[in-house]
Design a protein that fits this description.
alpha+beta
Length: about 220
């Protein structure tokens, strides 16, 4: 009987996260940017056409693949209500009444529906595309530059290209740094019922320990 691996058995072969780049086993790299959108539904017909045309022009201009990741995260509104309740006693009477009403509204909202915070990410790969590497060729000729340096330069160029292209569509692009990349992977891997966030310094310490342990094992083989 053929068996299928569960999602827990699937591992992403990450070597390290360094200088805002995710390095995989074998040397390939990825950068991740977060994209903040415009309120498309409230735009006029002309604005719709301009945004769609701008996005199509951006896609047609690309010389490398992209991965678009959409993530919806439940918002813990109950905790907001609890925090609000803890401050009511320190408010003037008029504001305290408004705060109680708002706290009741938040609790009712939680019971009736699940509120989601949506995030859009674009994963940008490094590769051997000569066109995108041409502008950095003189840097690669410098003594001492290695494959990691080439990947970082290429991803810098590609992130800037994506930022310019999406910026013409009215979108805001922000590249994720090391702690944010670690937090994103931790949030995706962690069980969905766990809502607490791991502090960045604990993520950095944990990741460093795991990578060092794996490399020590490889040296002993």
């Amino acid at each position: 009987m053929k068996t299928h691996a569960s999602i827990q058995d699937v591992h992403i072969q990450i070597d390290r996260i360094d200088n805002d780049v995710i390095f995989f086993m074998g040397g390939s790299g990825r950068a991740v940017v977060e994209v903040s959108g415009v309120d498309f539904a409230h735009q006029g017909v002309d604005e719709h056409g301009a945004l769609v045309a701008g996005f199509a022009a951006f896609l047609n201009s690309l010389t490398f693949p992209l991965q678009i990741v959409l993530r919806a995260v439940p918002i813990d509104v109950t905790q907001l209500a609890i925090d609000l309740d803890s401050r009511i006693q320190r408010l003037p009477p008029a504001l305290a009444d408004l705060a109680r009403d708002h706290s009741l509204f938040l609790r009712k909202l939680t019971r009736e529906r699940t509120l989601l915070d949506r995030h859009c990410y674009v994963v940008i790969p490094a590769g051997d595309d000569a066109q995108t590497l041409r502008s950095r060729r003189r840097f690669r000729r410098q003594a001492g530059e290695n494959t990691s340096d080439t990947v970082q330069w290429q991803l810098l160029d590609r992130c800037e290209e994506v930022s310019r292209g999406l910026g013409r569509c009215g979108l805001t692009v922000r590249r994720l740094g090391n702690p944010e990349l670690l937090q994103l992977f931790a949030d995706c891997w962690r069980a969905s019922h766990v809502q607490s966030r791991i502090p960045s310094h604990e993520l950095l310490h944990t990741t460093t320990s795991v990578v060092q342990s794996r490399r020590a094992k490889e040296r002993n083989v």
